[in-house]
Amino acid sequence: MARPPVAVEKAAMEDSPLASPRSRTVTVGGRRVHLLGTIKGLLSEQDLVTEHLSKHSPSAVGLHIGPQELKGLRSVIDGKVRSTYLSSYEKVYALKLSRFGEVQVPPPSLVGALRWSMENDARVIALDYSDDEYDRVYTETIGGMTLIRQSLRLKSLNRRKVRSTTPEAFCLEWDSWVNRPSGFRRLERKRELHFAERVRAVAAKHTPLVVVLELERLDGIISSLREDRIPEGK
């Protein structure tokens, strides 16, 4: 059965950093959902997220992480955890991103969203796969040879020259690098479809809703909200 039409509009704030394609409003099932694409790790994103949340005053905030990651983020904010693991790819990403500003972990965008929600009694909802679900989808999608090739690409990525002149462009450039293998592109597409389904479900129960997403997944998620659910095996 066809989904209800999804209307999309860009933020209309000409004198604000929110006046960009990074901030979108969609109507899902007759309810308005505010989507914000963020750059993972960049310290300046925290203020952007806080401004966005203060503007819309949501009753619920959706985050681009899974339930276990949300639990870990709470532990960091509560001071129970003082160190965060970074993969080799994440370390290279952070190093290259740092030319555009200070980089921190956990991502300041998520820290800002969680802190704002705690201070304003907004419910926080993890939208990504759980660890077990992600492991299943990853195993189904990524072949052994693809995984081996990806591990061998790390050195070449480390040496690769960044051509982007803005953090937004770099974010998309990096995504095109790491997801060049078709298996990883399929994996991210499945995540986008999953996000879209979760946004539909959450929007039916909570309004207003603000969703903090990875910038590189924003367009794909909006596209997924416009179409029927595609079986994950496709």
User: In DSSP terms, counting alpha (H) and pi (I) runs of 4 or more, how many helices?
Assistant: 10
Label the structural class. Answer: alpha/beta
The tally of structural domains comes to 1
C-alpha Rg (nearest Å): 18 Å
- Give the strand order, joined by hyphens, for the main sheet: 1-2-3-6-4-5
Mean pLDDT, rounded to whole units? 87
Features:
six-stranded mixed beta sheet, 234 residues, globular, disordered C terminus, 10 helices, alpha/beta, 50% helix
What does this structure look like?
The protein is an alpha/beta fold and 234 residues long. The protein has one domain (7-226). The protein has ten helices and six strands; from the N terminus they run βββαβαααβαααααβα. It has a six-stranded mixed beta sheet with strand order 1-2-3-6-4-5, with helices on both faces. β2 (23-28) and β3 form a beta hairpin. α1 runs parallel beside α4 and α9 crosses α10. The radius of gyration is 18 Å and the shape is globular. The chain starts with 6 loop residues before the first strand and ends in an 8-residue tail after the last helix.
